[in-house]
Design brief:
about 70 residues, mainly alpha, about 10% strand
Amino acid sequence: LWYLYFTLFWPYRDRFNEAGRHMDESTMVVYHEQTGLLLIPALVLSVLALGFACVWQRSRRRHKGAQ
């Protein structure tokens, strides 16, 4: 989701018109301002991944110490 956020929204963030759209003339693609909402799930999934990594690392340390 971070990749999508930075490729679909970030380069065009200052170019949206009052309707919330931007037309890229070279590729003939319309980008919508709502693409910026990808930031929310990207943050949530990043926090979850970090939390799971910490839990996994702690469980590995416990199992190494028990052997």
